[in-house]
Amino acid sequence: MSIAVAVVGAAGRMGSTVCQAVQDADGLELVARLDIGDTVSADTLNGADVAVDFTHPSTTEDNVHALIDAGVDVVVGTTGWTDESYERVREHLARPEAAGRSVIIAPNFALSAVLTMSFAAKAARYFESAEVIELHHPNKVDAPSGTAIATARGIAAARAEAGLGPVPDATETDPDGARGAVVDGVHVHAVRLRGLTAHEEVVLGNPGEQLTIRTDSFDRASFMPGVVLAVREVGGREGLTIGLDRLLDL
Ligand SMILES: NC(=O)C1=CN([C@@H]2O[C@H](COP(=O)(O)OP(=O)(O)OC[C@H]3O[C@@H](n4cnc5c(N)ncnc54)[C@H](OP(=O)(O)O)[C@@H]3O)[C@@H](O)[C@H]2O)C=CC1
Ligand SMILES: O=C(O)C1=N[C@H](C(=O)O)C[C@H](O)C1
Fold this sequence. Notes:
NADP, DapB_N, diaminopimelate biosynthesis, binds ligand LZUJQKHR, 2 domains, five-stranded mixed β-sheet, Dihydrodipicolinate Reductase, domain 2, DHDPR_bac, binds NADPH dihydro-nicotinamide-adenine-dinucleotide phosphate, 31% helix, six-stranded parallel β-sheet
């Protein structure tokens, strides 16, 4: 039996690529394409089992709650999630009327990016310094990227667990924010450049040495195996799953 899939944000860069990937995947059937202005309802979802959301950080949480209410499982690639918005989804999924529903939210579905986050967290405890540089196409609306935030959080958690203090940094004056955003104590720098798609570099430093971990998504095709995997697996995972690493044997 095939899995019926609706795509929300279907006219966008990711949504349109996901529609094609669903159509090309064995055992998946594209039954609905929704975009801005379309209402989420059992009618418009057209019998979908799973909905995939690639929309906008300002709207994705509302979409997820509406999709749960409409009775579908949800795979989310849209960024902009916080601990608080994750918690609201967890609470919604815990209600009796949402029994059996599942949501997977992942800031990045590309294998190279998921591995970068995993390797960075593993390496972090061994280095005095760690910074994240993300580089994207200039049409991206949010900075830093969701991937960079997740990477920085993973590094920070590993540093804290290892008992490392703050990264060394003698900066006294930075009126224009040249040291970047600071996510859980880890500096994150965002580059927007025509020609790029989605890239990230994690630099880790010790006296006399540096480790660089880099991921490059040159094409949105890189995200599709992860999205298709999540669509296939979401039905079997009740509740909220955060990150594609949870579906891989990492
Ligand atoms: N997890 C991952 O692996 C990846 C995540 N992303 C993330 O996915 C998101 C989308 O990126 P991208 O495809 O490049 O963005 P786009 O702007 O190309 O696409 C978003 C689409 O969603 C539409 N949209 C906006 N609001 C709604 C709504 N309320 N309901 C339905 N559709 C809506 C937009 O319409 P309109 O243009 O009219 O506003 C647009 O067609 C971003 O948050 C990005 O960071 C991107 C790549 C990979
Ligand atoms: O907007 C994008 O393009 C991307 N967004 C995601 C993010 O913010 O991490 C994933 C990937 O970097 C592409």
